[in-house]
Amino acid sequence: MSTRNTILEGIKDCLKNISDVSDVVRKFVFFDDVHSFPLLMVLGGDEIFDDQLGNHTISKMAVKVAGYAKSSQDPEKEQCILIGNVLKCLDDEEYNPYKAGMRPIKMETDEGTLHAMGDGVSLFVLELELLYRFDRSNP
Asked: Containing domain of residue 97, as a range?
């Protein structure tokens, strides 16, 4: 297994520690295919490489954590609760072995557009930057 895949699986496993999340997956799921809320998705993004001496490379990898929440009464409140739980979990060294090399850099939300189409569904995408070192013979 590659270092990149190991990291993404580790973040997925970390987020499974959030007690009120129905599932955490490693793919993007469209809201009309979600059967149980809240749902979290871990997605690997672009990487920027910075070579070092020898066979090692430092990578800055973008990791996206996307999440669907649902509430017909207050979808924004449910979304904020889910975002807070994700940030707390990612900031906990007990659950997240990559915390030291990770920082949140961007947050996007649907601003209520899915609420009208999906009866209370809301979406956020949290982008993280994760630094790691790998041996080029085993990326």
From this structure: 3-135
Q: Hey, what are 57's tokens? A: 């490379």
Q: How far apart are CA 54 and CA 51, in angstroms?
A: 9
pTM for the structure as a whole: 0.90
Give dist(CA 64, CA 47) in Å, integer.
12
pLDDT in tens, 55-77: 888 999 999 999 999 998 888 89
The Cβ of residue 67 has, within 10 Å, a number of other Cβ atoms equal to 24
Instruction: Calculate the alpha carbon distances from 16 to 40, 75, 121 in Å.
Output: 9, 22, 21
The answer to whether the beta carbons of residues 123 and 109 sit under 8 Å apart is yes
Is the bond into 97 cis (omega within 30 degrees of 0)?
Answer: no
The CATH number covering residue 69 comes to 3.30.2000.10
CB burial of residue 15 (10 Å; 0-12, 13-18, 19+): buried
Q: Quote the CA–CA distance of 66 and 125 in Å, as a whole number.
A: 4
- Structure tokens given for 5: 């895949």
The domain tally of the chain equals 1
